[in-house]
């Protein structure tokens, strides 16, 4: 594998090493001990519709070596500066998600997508999202792929932080329309949790389907291919483990066939 910057493609000596996926200010904010252990478990899977068992982790101390100095000290640094005060307030629940302006939602969305993507490259699951989606984020004015949705909620928590990557997608279609049970290989869902703040980055490749959030649970920061009037009220299936709330938040985002449904 070539050592190229994941975001801009630069190669050579400009590539940094040991870049923290989650910035130092945020790790300090959590006051995690130096010997913080990475938690790995299998999420509750009562619905039995898993394409693959989701795996959940709760430490962001891992690092990624494929970010160049120009990206790191340029647009990524400016993104951190813009996101930090808003993120901190949301994490500590000093602010509610509903209070965010559209520009604040855009900043938090981009930060969530950037962090989620790096987690998929550097985390122990080794299931990276497609590189062309990562490259789209490069630069101050760039935005995520149009098929990506970002959703948030605030809730109680057990672990100070966690993440999950899952292939579970509840799928719905009107009567008489076949449901494609296979989850496309390039679909992805990444859930991130920092104390009270839960973030979900989701991509479904089929343009004839909409992301299908659960009403009053998945608050859109970046709607992607979803509509505010198309959401479900299915029961939330949630175990009692330390990161099951994150797993339920992530798993319960569905897709609905658009071509005949609406
Ligand atoms: Zn770069």
Describe the structure.
The chain is of the alpha+beta class. The protein has one domain (14-33, 62-256). It is built from six helices and twelve strands. It has helices at residues 24-30, 69-73, 75-91, 102-122, 131-135, 244-251, and strands spanning 19-20, 40-42, 55-57, 63-64, 148-154, 161-165, 171-172, 188-194, 197-203, 209-212, 219-222, 254-257. The protein has a seven-stranded antiparallel β-sheet with strand order 2-3-6-8-9-5-11, sandwiched between helices. Strand 8 and strand 9 (197-203) form a beta hairpin. Helix 3 crosses helix 4. It is globular, with a radius of gyration of 18 Å. The protein binds zinc ion.
Tertiary shape: globular
Ligand inventory: zinc ion
Instruction: Report the sheet-strand fraction.
Output: 15-25%
For the record, the count of structural domains works out to 1
Arithmetic mean of pLDDT:
84
Radius of gyration: 18 Å
Order of the strands making up the biggest sheet: 2-3-6-8-9-5-11
Structural class: alpha+beta
Number of strands: 12
Distance between the termini: 44 Å
The helix/strand order is EHEEEHHHHEEEEEEEHE
How much helix is in the residues?
10-25%
The largest pleated sheet is described as: 7 strands, antiparallel
Number of helices: 6
* Poorly predicted residue ranges: 40-52
Question: TL;DR of this structure?
Answer:
This protein is an alpha+beta fold and 262 residues long. The chain has helices at residues 24-30, 69-73, 75-91, 102-122, 131-135, 244-251; strands spanning 19-20, 40-42, 55-57, 63-64, 148-154, 161-165, 171-172, 188-194, 197-203, 209-212, 219-222, 254-257. It has one domain.
């Amino acid at each position: 594998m070539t050592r190229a910057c994941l975001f801009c493609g630069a190669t050579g000596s400009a590539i940094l090493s040991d870049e923290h996926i989650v910035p130092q200010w945020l790790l300090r904010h959590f006051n995690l001990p130096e010997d913080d252990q990475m938690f790995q478990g299998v999420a509750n899977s009562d619905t039995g519709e898993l394409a693959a068992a989701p795996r959940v982790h709760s430490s962001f101390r891992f690092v990624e070596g494929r970010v160049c100095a120009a990206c790191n000290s340029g647009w990524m640094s400016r993104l951190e500066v813009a996101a930090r005060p808003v993120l901190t307030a949301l994490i500590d629940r000093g602010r509610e998600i509903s209070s965010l302006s559209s520009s604040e939602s855009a900043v938090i969305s981009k930060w969530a997508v950037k962090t989620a993507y790096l987690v998929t490259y550097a985390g122990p699951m080794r299931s990276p999202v497609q590189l062309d989606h990562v490259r789209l984020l490069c630069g101050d004015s760039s935005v995520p792929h149009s098929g990506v949705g970002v959703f948030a909620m605030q809730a109680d928590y057990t672990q100070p932080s966690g993440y999950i990557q899952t292939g579970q997608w509840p799928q719905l279609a009107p009567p008489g329309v076949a449901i494609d049970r296979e989850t496309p290989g390039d679909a992805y869902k990444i859930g991130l949790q920092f104390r009270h703040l839960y973030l979900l980055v989701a991509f479904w490749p089929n343009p004839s389907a909409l992301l299908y959030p659960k009403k009053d649970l998945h608050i859109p920061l970046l709607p992607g291919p979803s509509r505010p009037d198309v959401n479900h009220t299915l029961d939330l299936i949630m175990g009692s483990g330390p990161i099951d709330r994150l797993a339920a938040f992530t798993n319960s985002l569905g897709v609905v066939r658009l071509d005949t449904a609406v």
